């Protein structure tokens, strides 16, 4: 009987119950099975650098000015390595301006016509993103990410005006002008990127820097009209490199 009791006691020491075993394993792996703080609310702000407008009927292929961008998202951590997110992002406006000079014959004389082009393109996106957190070192975690979704792209009015100097020293004279009406369309979009985050506390994570490349599909105006016929729409691929910073609130 004493031998049986001794054996039972030794067995209980050498084979701890599953609860303690799981806890030990999780601590060794640096992870937890707790469901606490799996959800997150994220907010980002930054700048987006638009790529060169080089589509159909753009006389001058040129990069637009950068756009302010911001986003908000709801995320869920599947484990210590993978996070999912539904995010809404906004690009407040890529301003395109270009000048172009061409020669025309007016009343038998060759004159130079200076064209000025202006347009603003905006976009809002809704995307499902997946983030892969890499190794955590002193609460600093690099990560990579990617996602797909829908982009609502609004190509603003494309304004074109041509001026020429009939006589040197006189104010320029209007040669021709036209406007192409704006158009909004819904495109498939995708993004890919990387970043570095810092864990401030169990509830706050600071995404120190986040880079993403966005392919927002095509932007196009409607066809325009002017005396003498129809002016075909301008179309371009809309893409951008964004640099942002933000926070994630875990709950």
What does this structure look like?
The chain has 251 residues and is mainly beta. The chain has 2 domains: 1-33; 34-250, Porin. It contains 2 helices and 12 strands; from the N terminus they run ααββββββββββββ. It has helices at residues 2-14, 18-29; strands spanning 39-50, 67-77, 82-106, 109-133, 140-155, 158-164, 173-180, 183-199, 204-220, 224-226, 229-231, 235-250. The strands form 2 sheets. The protein has an 8-stranded antiparallel barrel. A two-stranded antiparallel sheet has the order 10-11. Mean pLDDT is 85; it is low at 1-34.
Brief overview:
The protein has 251 residues and is mainly beta. Helix content is 10%, strand content 64%.
Taking all residues together, what is the mean pLDDT?
85
Kindly report how far apart the N and C termini lie. Answer: 54 Å
The fraction of residues in strands falls at: over 45%
Reported CATH architecture of the largest domain: Beta Barrel
Largest sheet: 8 strands, antiparallel, barrel
Oligomer: single chain
* The first-level CATH class name of the largest domain: Mainly Beta
